Amino acid sequence: MATTNLSNYDKATIPNAKKFRFGIVVSEWNPDITENLYLGAKEAFLENGATEENIIKWDVPGSFELIYGCKKMIETQKLDAIIAIGNVIQGETKHFDFVCDGVTQGIKDLNIKFDVPIIFCVLTDNTKQQSIDRSGGKHGNKGIESAIAAIKMAALREF
Ligand SMILES: Nc1c(NC[C@H](O)[C@H](O)[C@H](O)CO)[nH]c(=O)[nH]c1=O
Ligand SMILES: CC(=O)[C@@H](O)COP(=O)(O)O
After folding, report:
1. Does the pLDDT at position 115 exceed 70?
2. Which residue in the list 6, 31, 68, 95 is annotated as catalytic?
3. Where do the domains of the chain lie?
4. Which residues take part in binding 5-amino-6-(D-ribitylamino)uracil (predicted)?
5. Which ligand 1 atom minimizes the distance to the CA of 30?
6. If you measure from the C-alpha of residue 20 to the centroid of ligand 1, how many angstroms do you get, rounded to a whole number?
7. pTM score, two decimals?
8. Whose alpha carbon is nearest atom 7 of ligand 2?
């Protein structure tokens, strides 16, 4: 099955992020993965003109808590876009299915309810290796891709 890697982007096609303020909510489950996703996103923001003081990071216990964390961030911070970062890896039970579906639906609902785009950067993988490959490995870094999406959506939000 094809795996799309958008981590290598043409900077000339990305709006300058200097005037935007971004939030990043990061799940503490699988921190080796989520921290790499966060660092990829932060570096991409900075590379495209964002400033350190305009990148707000909050940590939450797990991917399911990304929903409340993003909601609270929207309600208390003045932001142009948010990235929700998590990594859910299949275990022995159906809990994987419920966490993945719950966070997907929750983030979708927030995108509908509020006027701040939330980018879905939750890796939902069968194996740890799949997560490694997508957080700075052979399939790129989904954190970078999410930051580019956040910049584009922040620009779109201005219309
Ligand atoms: N198994 C994983 C979880 N599970 C925890 C849930 O996200 C949540 O924190 C708990 O159900 C309490 O509400 N979370 C991940 O992010 N990744 C996993 O692999
Ligand atoms: C996605 C999860 O919550 C999962 O990693 C927990 O593992 P298990 O299904 O073996 O309890």
Report:
1. yes
2. 95
3. 27-53+68-154
4. 29, 63-65, 87-89, 120
5. 17
6. 30
7. 0.97
8. 91
* Model ipTM value: 0.97
Cα 93 to averaged position of ligand 2 atoms, centre (Å): 6
Is the model's pLDDT at 2 over the cut of 80? Answer: no
Q: Which ligand is closest to the CA of 102, given by its number? A: 1
**Catalytic site includes residue 139:** no
Determine the topology of domain 27-53+68-154 in CATH.
Answer: Rossmann fold (3.40.50)
Phi, psi of 3 (to 5 degrees): -120, 120
Provide φ and ψ at 2, rounded to 5°.
-65, 140
The closest residue, in CA terms, to atom 8 on ligand 2 is 91
The full DSSP string for the chain is -------S--GGGS---TT--EEEEEE-SSHHHHHHHHHHHHHHHHHTT--GGGEEEEEESSGGGHHHHHHHHHHHS--SEEEEEEEEE--SSTHHHHHHHHHHHHHHHHHHHSSS-EEEEEEEESSHHHHHHTEEETTEEHHHHHHHHHHHHHHHHT-
Does residue 83 have its Cβ closer than 6 Å to ligand 2? Answer: no
- What's at 14, amino acid-wise? I
Q: Are 50 and 18 in contact (CB under 8 A)?
A: yes
